[in-house]
C-alpha cells in the first residue's frame, strides 16, 4: 500500500505541474517555478517559529504568502527594466538565503532541515493521514494535491482560450480586450499554489523538475497546445511511476530518481521527435544538401 500512495502522490504532482508547466514554457517563464519553490522557504520557517508545529495548513499559508511576494517582486524588477532571468535569479536566491539563515539560526526550534527542503518526504506520505470522524481517509498530501489539481484543471478549462491566446500572442490578447495582466497573475497564483502544495511532500527538486521537464519534452513532440498538455501530463506520470521503481532498484532518492527518469524521457524526445528532434533535423539537412547538389 505504501507503494501506491507514493506513486499516487508523485502522479498528482506530475499532473498538476505538467499542465501549468506548458503555459510557463510557452511564455518563456519556466524558471518562475524554480524561484517560487526556493523562495517559499522563509514562509515555512516563519510558520514553524510562530506555531511551533508542522501543521500543514500553517505551512501552506506561510509558504503561499512568500510565493505571492516572490511573484510581485519579480514583476516589479522586470517593470523597472531588469531582464526576466536576472529578476528571477535575484529574488529567489535572496529569499532562499533568508530562509536558510532562519533555519540555521533557529535550528533548535525548527524541525526542518535542508535535505527535507530539497528532496521532500515523499517516502513517508502514507504516515501523515487525515482522520475524519474516526475514519482514516488516507494521506493528507494526496487530498491536498488532489484538491490543487482539481482547482488548476477547473481554472484552465474555464479560461482555456484566454490562457492560450495570452501564451502565444499577448499583444493580440490585449487588442481583443482580454485582461492580460489579470491572467498573468492568475497563472502565477496557480503556480504558486501548486508549488506550495507540493513542497512539503516532494521537495523543491521534484517540483521544479515536473514543472519544466515534461512540458519541455511535450513542446518538442507537438505544435498543438491541447496535445502538448496531454503529453506533458503523460510524461510526468511515467516519470513518477518509473522513478519510484528505479529508486527502489537503485536504493536511491525517490524524488531524484523521478526527475532523472523525466530527464531521460526528455532526451528521447529531443533525439526522436518527428519534427524537432535531432534525427529529423539531421535527415532534413541531408535532404536539403542532396537537393542542392
CATH architecture descriptor name: Orthogonal Bundle
Give the assembly state of these chains. single chain
* CATH homologous superfamily title: ABC transporter involved in vitamin B12 uptake, BtuC
Residue share in helix: over 70%
Total helices: the number is 13
CATH topology: ABC transporter involved in vitamin B12 uptake, BtuC
Mean pLDDT: 79
Shape: globular
Q: Work out the number of β strands.
A: 2
Instruction: Point out poorly predicted stretches.
Output: none
What is the structural class? mainly alpha
User: Within the largest sheet, what's the order of strands?
Assistant: 1-2
How much of the sequence lies in strands comes to under 5%
Q: How would a textbook summarize the main sheet?
A: 2 strands, antiparallel
Terminus-to-terminus distance: 63 Å
Count of discrete structural domains: 1
What does this structure look like?
Keywords: Cell membrane, Membrane, Transmembrane, Transmembrane helix, Transport. This protein has 293 residues and is mainly alpha-helical. The chain is built from 13 helices and two strands. It has a single domain (2-124, 142-292), classed as ABC transporter involved in vitamin B12 uptake, BtuC, CATH 1.10.3470.10. Helices cover 80% and strands 3% of the residues. A two-stranded antiparallel sheet has the order 1-2. A hairpin with a 2-residue loop joins β1 and β2 (135-139). The longest helix is centred in the last third of the chain and has 42 residues, at 180-221.
Amino acid at each position: 500500500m505504501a507503494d501506491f500512495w507514493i506513486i499516487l502522490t508523485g502522479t498528482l504532482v506530475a499532473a498538476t505541474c505538467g499542465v501549468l508547466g506548458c503555459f510557463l514554457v510557452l511564455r518563456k517563464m519556466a524558471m518562475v517555478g524554480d524561484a517560487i519553490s526556493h523562495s517559499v522557504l522563509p514562509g515555512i520557517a516563519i510558520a514553524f517559529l510562530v506555531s511551533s508545529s508542522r501543521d500543514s495548513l500553517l505551512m501552506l499559508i506561510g509558504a503561499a504568502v512568500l510565493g505571492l511576494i516572490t511573484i510581485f517582486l519579480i514583476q516589479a524588477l522586470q517593470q523597472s527594466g531588469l531582464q526576466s532571468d536576472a529578476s528571477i535569479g535575484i529574488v529567489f536566491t535572496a529569499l532562499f538565503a533568508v530562509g536558510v539563515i532562519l533555519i540555521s539560526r533557529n535550528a533548535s526550534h525548527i524541525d526542518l532541515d535542508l535535505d527535507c527542503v530539497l528532496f521532500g518526504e515523499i517516502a513517508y506520505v502514507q504516515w501523515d493521514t487525515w482522520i475524519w470522524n474516526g475514519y482514516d481517509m488516507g494521506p493528507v498530501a494526496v487530498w491536498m494535491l488532489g484538491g490543487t489539481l482539481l482547482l488548476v484543471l477547473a481554472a484552465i478549462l474555464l479560461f482555456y482560450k484566454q490562457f492560450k491566446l495570452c501564451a502565444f500572442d499577448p499583444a493580440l490578447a490585449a487588442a481583443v480586450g482580454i485582461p492580460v495582466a489579470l491572467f498573468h497573475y492568475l497563472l502565477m497564483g496557480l503556480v504558486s499554489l501548486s508549488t506550495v502544495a507540493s513542497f512539503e511532500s516532494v521537495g523543491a527538486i521534484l517540483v521544479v523538475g515536473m514543472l519544466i521537464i515534461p512540458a519541455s519534452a511535450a513542446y518538442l513532440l507537438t505544435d498543438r497546445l491541447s496535445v502538448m498538455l496531454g503529453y506533458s501530463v503523460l510524461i510526468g506520470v511515467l516519470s513518477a511511476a518509473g522513478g519510484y521503481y528505479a529508486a527502489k532498484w537503485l536504493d536511491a532518492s525517490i524524488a531524484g530518481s523521478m526527475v532523472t527518469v523525466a530527464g531521460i524521457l526528455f532526451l528521447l524526445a529531443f533525439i526522436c521527435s518527428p519534427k524537432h528532434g535531432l534525427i529529423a533535423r539531421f535527415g532534413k539537412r541531408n535532404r536539403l544538401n542532396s537537393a542542392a547538389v
